[in-house]
Amino acid sequence: MLITPTRRSFVAGGAACSASVLLPMASHLAAADTRPQLQIPPELFSDGKGEIHLAAQSGTMQFGRRTPTPTYGFNGPFLGPAVRLRRGEDVVMHVKNALPEPTTVHWHGLIIPGDADGGPHQVIQPADTWRVPLIVDQPAATLWFHPHIYPATAELVIKGLAGLLLVSDEESDGLGLPSHWGVDDIPLIIQDRRFKPDGSFFHRFNLAAVTVGYVGDTPLVNGSTYPIAKTAQGWLRLRILNGSNARSYRLAASDNRSIHVIGSDGGLLEHHVSMNELLVHAGERFEVLVDARDGQSFDLVTLPVDQPIMRLPPFDKPLPLITIDPTGAEGAGTLPDALVTLPSIPTTPPPLSQSLTMNMNRDDEGMGALMKAGLKKLTDGSTDASVAKKLTEVIVDGPTLSQAERSTANGVNGSSFALDAKPFSVKQNTLLRWRIDENSDTMLHPVHIHGCQFRVLSMDDNPPPAHLAGWKDTVAISKGGVAEILVNFPHAAEARTPYMTHCHILEHEDSGMMAQFTVS
């Protein structure tokens, strides 16, 4: 039996809830005219010829009261549209590069052949257009697209190149979920940024970056700081994308109302999972429903996470990201008792066929500098200002590494990535068991695999929590962690256009923590 995103036998999932204390509501709706409205990405459908046109272009954006920021975006100055696809649809994507530098576009989570995947071997030069057919054959899901050019993915994503890729199907259509785009079906692209005095985005590849990734100090949701979403009153569907380079978000409602997880990276779950907090790592997506039938406003906040460096202010205490103001007309969507049927997990999984170990070659140096600056003193809610200043200096002022230095800072299975490295090989249309670990490393690594949606068998030798038991394309390991997955690759990937597997902390990816593989 092949585990691919089809609808077959039932897999039971337990509840995964965690308790939290009541959080303070930080919004002030009386001053709503001083707050930005949540920007809803425009939907982009294929035209009458089955074609979709995207253009990567430069622009400028005003983020708050700062000096205007030079940005990149798709079909606009920052971020991009929500590209709509439907299962069974064949489309042709036309991606024009109107930037002054090369790029690629990776369809993150889409199950397509290697020559359509948009990895680092499929470079679009300035003024060129990449024409690529996409055959959509997977369940409804919230996916996304972003550059995947080596070694500049991190910088291009920081500048704004990212967008949603939404797949629909008949089964999800019939569930009665909230589906009025921007009214009760709300996209939330969560990112963090740090700005230079001249208004431009900060990014520097130094020891701190290749060790802990990008550490921003300003949260953005759909490109705005602490916006207000005017929504329907009723059940709300939030499509959450962690589009940050490295930061994880521990999301909760300010009034402790439940977050009902209905879907993960690759599609809907069998049943919703009610939680008080939801941890979302870089590259992951979740669809959640919240009950706003009471018409009461609340904030979606992020709580301090385990990684000390990511608790620098303002992330050292509950931080509001967006206000949900459900005072519009009553919505029609509901929370179904059952969602979709997932393939059963084999009682006896196949033998282990591939091990992937994430390696950090300069971890001691990078962490040494941060520890010397007082990293251990970072605690939830009580960060000493002098310690924060010293740590920020390491992040911002640490000398830039040469390309040769950073290209070998990290690796997979003992080797740092190179475009001409020999790929490992994988059998096509075969159920496989892979092991992903970090040996003695304790850093967080959200590991993404191209060309598939997989199922998590175990995390640190335990069954995955219920909200991670569905279709996934990214699985996080940390603290010497191990994950085992069941995966199948239905399409081929040749040596000239191989698939990638890598840490989705983009600074790790760009500094060698990536491997390539063929499927045949």
Short description:
With 520 residues, the chain is mainly β. It has helices at residues 153-159, 170-173, 207-212, 363-372, 385-397, 403-406, 506-510, and strands at 43-44, 51-61, 69-74, 82-86, 90-97, 106-108, 129-135, 141-146, 163-168, 185-193, 218-221, 228-230, 234-242, 249-253, 259-264, 267-275, 278-280, 285-292, 298-303, 319-325, 352-360, 410-412, 424-426, 432-437, 445-449, 455-459, 474-477, 482-487, 499-503, 514-519.
Overall description:
This protein is mostly beta strands and 520 residues long. The protein has 7 helices and 30 strands. The protein has helices spanning 153-159, 170-173, 207-212, 363-372, 385-397, 403-406, 506-510, and strands spanning 43-44, 51-61, 69-74, 82-86, 90-97, 106-108, 129-135, 141-146, 163-168, 185-193, 218-221, 228-230, 234-242, 249-253, 259-264, 267-275, 278-280, 285-292, 298-303, 319-325, 352-360, 410-412, 424-426, 432-437, 445-449, 455-459, 474-477, 482-487, 499-503, 514-519. Strands 11-10-13-18-15-16 form a 6-stranded mixed sheet, with no helix packed on it. The longest helix is centred in the C-terminal third of the chain and has 13 residues, at 385-397.
The residue ranges in which pLDDT falls below 50 over 5 or more consecutive positions are 1-21
Report the sheet-strand fraction.
25-35%
* Approximate helicity band: under 10%
Please describe the biggest sheet, giving its number of strands, its sense, and whether it closes into a barrel.
6 strands, mixed
Anisotropy-based shape? globular
Mean pLDDT: 93
Number of strands: 30
Helix/strand structural class: mainly beta
The rounded Rg comes to 22 Å
Q: Going across the biggest sheet, name each strand in turn.
A: 11-10-13-18-15-16
Discrete helix count: 7
- End-to-end separation in angstroms reads 18 Å
